[in-house]
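Can't paste images in this forum, so I'm doing it all in text. The chain is below; anyone willing to post the predicted structure tokens underneath?
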Amino acid sequence: MKQGIILLFLLLGCIYGIQAQDSTVNVGDEFTIQQPEGNQFNHLDFPRPNFLIKKGILPDYKSLAGIRVVVADVSTDREGHQVATLQPVNRKQYFRHYREVTAHVGEALQSGELSR
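Text version of the structure:
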């Protein structure tokens, strides 16, 4: 009985360790932006619609789905979350004015806003 419990804890520890290693992001990693749930992204820091409207741009976040992005910089914020600066692979701009966007990588991967 004790061996079964120890084996169970070892398996759970290995599974948790594999998941923790998967969430690390390095410069040069590529991701794909996925369709957000609802109308806006929660973990990708795109500009708010009112800023886009002031510049004469219609905020169409659905058009961002499927864009391949590369990690240009990785840092850590005050809460200890990993924040990455993302640039499009094709070197185009988001909404004609923004060359890069920041993202909370772990939360974006879990919510499905980014995929590998």
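The chain has three helices and six strands. The mean pLDDT is 80.
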